[in-house]
Structure prediction request, 232 residues.
Amino acid sequence: MAPGLQRFTDIAGDGGPRLDAASGEELLRMDRAASVALGRRAPEPPGTLFVTTRRVIWLSETEKGQGYAVDFLAITLHAVSRDLEAYPSPCIYTQIDAEDGSDEEAGGSDFEANGDLQLAKVSEMRIILSDPGQLDALFDVFCHCAELNPDPNAVRNEENGWSGGENLAEGGWIHGDEDMIDGNDLEAHMFFTNLIGQNGVRDLGRSVRELQIDDQRFEDAEEEDEIQENGH
Prediction:
């Protein structure tokens, strides 16, 4: 798994991030006046968000040359959150593969040490756009990038005939116009009802349809048994 959230200072002459062109990294989307909120911290002052084929990069406008970056391989979940009771602003909510003792588990005590942010322990990041109407478009780009960066462990398990049912929520994404419960309050059944896709899990929609068909078959079979028992 790729490292989690990291500081980013590799700024090109035009003020944007310097991309890894040798590995084919390309810029797919840029949003100005975008804020990020790390863990339970308040949102950073607005900066510029860059989404590439490999990672998410945010650069500060107030502290030039400073920012954060996270590889898509380290993003285990992303979703559109519009539940203002869960968070006061519509946003893209992401979960990040972090070191043990994340900010949620430690109650925030290990999230900062001596006033310094420990990025390796940040397991949640929210992206707040100046125009909330652009969240769906940004979500679609995240989905595309997740497909470009499948979890190698999931692919390996798929080749070996294993399915990671117990990890269905990891590496996936949720999207819905309805309100969502985020953070540690995400319940398992939400992933089954609202899950759109996941790295390494294919044809989920077809599997659900097949399951529904099988359920119907079982219901029909039970009805036929009852009719035969009653002699009709």
